[in-house]
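ok trying again, last paste got cut off:
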Amino acid sequence: MSNTNLPGQEQHRMLSIDFFRGFTMFMLIGEFSGFFNTLTDPFFNGTIISAIGHQLEHVEWIGLHFWDLIQPFFMFIVGVSMPFSMTKRWNRGDSWNVTLRHAVIRSLMLLILGWALYCIGPGKITFRFTNVLAQLSVSYFIAFLLMRKTVKWQLIISFLLILISQLIYLYWNVSGFNQPFTPDQNFGSWFDLALTGMPGGGHWVAFNAIPTAAHTIWGVITGMILMNNWKPKMKIKIMLLAGIVGLFVGFALSPFIPIIKHICTASFVFVSGGWCMIAMAFSYWLIDIRKYTKFSLFFAVVGMNPLFIYLFAHTNGNSWIEAIVKPFINAVFLPAGVLTNDIVLSLTVWAGLWWICYFLYKRKVFIKL
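nice, full thing came through this time. structure:
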């Protein structure tokens, strides 16, 4: 296949991508700190703090909270970064086969790491593939294979992945699993049982990697838009228009196909994809156009080591930090009340996770696959 780089494309680093990725990862480590749980304490019932706290947890089944957008954000921003990194490799002389091998190895490593995380707790081999790394291993590889296709074909294939997935849910005829929008009674649940012999857990399903691949594909298209030497206003208009269309399509489908993140229904993929585009447009406007870059480093340092901090937090790194600081926090803040103590403790753990990323950033240590 011939090369790569379309005429007139920009190759400089875009700070808005670092900001977007960093914000997403910062929110993820915030969940591990336990801070979000303190916001839904009964003490805050009826206040805006409680409302914010509920937005920072997943919807139980049907509907959409802000927190339901974090994984799509992550899948999307990986896609946005791909044209920059791959075009750089192709322009320096790497062949398609070389980058294909890289993509295969990276996808396999992500899949193995995602699967291995489920084996740590029980201390035995547990086949589950529902976390973000396992999902990303599939969506990343699909998006890579489409990178040299035209935007038209990337869009067509992304829509086909959503359509086929939804049709399978609606019409897959397996006894006991014919209720497409019922927890644990749908095709995704059947697929997990067939694949691993056990349910995915929490109503999540491994098959989500197929429809959510659209997020990564749309991210690749967005990265190509950002690389182009069009005027910034044109780029923002395209991203905003695409985002609004995604919201319109998703909400228009929702009376017939409910918005359910746990099984990535078509309505959810379109709505969350729309928010991804709008969030990227805002980040680009704020960071690269308006040049509000001073505070962006705060988030960017987390996004520069996403794999490390995700694995660190998932392997109880937050608990290690908590064990160190808890005696001191308790001594000072416990007299003020359990809730106050929990808030300070969780914020301290969150700050500790951020500081580790900053420590690595200052020493130019970046762990990648």
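cool. The first helix runs from residue 15 to 33. The radius of gyration is 21 Å.
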